[in-house]
Structures are given as C-alpha cells and as structure tokens.
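MODEL INPUT / OUTPUT PAIR
PAIR INDEX: 1
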Amino acid sequence: MTRRWALPLGVAAAFGWHLALRLHGLGLPLLSDEGEYAYAARVWAEGGLPYRDAFNQKPPMIFAIYRACAAVSSYPGGPRLAAMLAVLLTGLALLLLAPKRWSLPARLAAPLAYFTLSTAPVGDFGFAANTEVFAVAFTAWAVWAA
C-alpha cells in the first residue's frame, strides 16, 4: 500500500467505526430529550414559538436542526442521521486541524477519540441526537475557519 492511500483508508476506517457505534440506535424510539426537541420543532413549524409555546433550555440551533430533519422526511430517525453527519464532519474538522507534519496515527487520534467518546456510553444512549453533538460540529469548524 502506498502512503497516499494510508490517510483516505484511515479516515474511512475511522468513519466506519463511528457508524458502527451509532447505527444501532436508528430504529429505536426518540429519547426524552430528543422528544422535547422534536416537539419544540413541530410547535415552531405549526406557527408557535420555541421558548414561548414549548419551553426548553437548549439553544435555537437544535430546534432548527430537528425542524429541518422533519421537513426533509417524516422518518423519526432523521435527527440521529443528522447527528451522525455532524459527528463525521467534526471528525473531519479535527483531522484538518492536525498539522500535516504529524504522523498518520497522530492525525487520526483526535477524530477516533471523538468518534468513540461522542457515543459514550456505547450501547445505551450513545446514539442520541443531542445538542452537544451539533454544537461541537459548529465549534470545530469555527476553529478551523479561524
């Protein structure tokens, strides 16, 4: 294997690891937090306002993401698919933030650690589309842009 294939294969393996940790949650009902976000997004889509007609302490970004997922599909696992994408994009940002002079294992360490830690506890509730998953994605890309 040539060196130019090492990084793409490493990234593909890391993304596969993340998907393997999260895919089991797609068919499960929404958790209580996810249900709150989905409810606030539905109230908003029907003309109500978050924080007035459906209280939640989370930032408006989470309601906008849940509302967008509901607009695209009625599939209840939509926000979890969006969370998978957000974590994968965060991993990509972490990879891009690592200096190119670092070795491949060093550059992949942060994305792999994040893929694993963002699904903790593995097997229980590590598949949730929670606020933190989306906020970290926005933060990582803001750091990359800066």
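PAIR INDEX: 2
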Amino acid sequence: LPQFFTQGLSVANYADSGESSGSFLADARLFPTMSPLIGDGDVVLIQFGHNDKQTSAEDFRANLTGLIDGVRDQGGTPVLVTPIVRRWFNDDGTLNNGTALHVNGLGVDLPAEMRGLAEQEGVSLIDLTALTKQLVEELGPDASEALYLTNEADDNTHLSERGATEFAQLVLGELRAQSVIPADLFR
C-alpha cells in the first residue's frame, strides 16, 4: 500500500504471520503494543480470517468488536477488510467453495460475519473476498497462478509480488471510492 500514497501519509503494518483474531488481541507484542500508537483520525485496516480456522462465529465477532472498540477508543477509524480468496478452483472454474471463501472448520462463513459486523457497528467494509474472487475467477486457473506463490512454493494462499500489488490496488480503489482517506493523499 505505501507505494500508492503521497509522502503525507505513512503505513504501519502490525500484521504477524499465523495470527488469528483472538491471538492478535492476546499477544502483548501485537494489538496491545499497536493500540496506544493510534492517533486521532488514523485509519486502521482490520483483516482476519485465514487463521481463524476453528474460531466460532461468536468469538470471531467478539474479537473483531474488541479491535473496532480499541481503535475507536484511541480516536482512530476502523475499517474491516474481508480476507483474500484462496486459489482453490472448482471443476467449473469458480471459487464457490468453503476453502476459497473462508468458511472455517466449524462452518462459519468468516467474510459474511465481517460484513454483518461492519453494518452493525457502522464501520466501513472493504469486501476483499468478493473483489479478489472476481479477479481470480476472471483470470482463471492458469493465469491466476501468477498472483500466488503457486509455482514457487505450491502455495495458493500467499501472494507473489504481483499478486500483492494487484490486491493492494483493489484495497486502494475501495479506500478512494468510500472516501476513507482524503483524495489528495493518493498518488
């Protein structure tokens, strides 16, 4: 994301590989460290789902609500971002399956929970699941390999540099469309 903003804006990334919504809240190195650094008007993108494989709907919503409240308590603006799709095609060339769309091991549709919570809490939502599903399906099984680490590591979850750039542009488009960040801060 930083490459798409002017010098008047900085991006701090507090993501940590393998964290779920609950472990991010509980680990003293993560949200408890980040929270006091949030200032008035800071936009905080909150994206979870990949590692909430056994998180109940109730716990997922409670964890996200805790993050939303924590951001608001510091004067920040929380924005929920649904997870990117996994490159897990059906025979018909679609990604209409639980693995791709983040329906976890308990049957919880994590992006749907985020959509509902965003509406309930009155926070902006970037539906990156829907946006990446559309892009990956349009590219199809072969061309979409370039977005992921499919060829390098047989990995259909993590992104290549190209994929990270293209998916960041999707987020950027939504930040612009929803006027979450002032227009003069975009390159």
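PAIR 2 NOTE: The longest strand covers residues 77-81.
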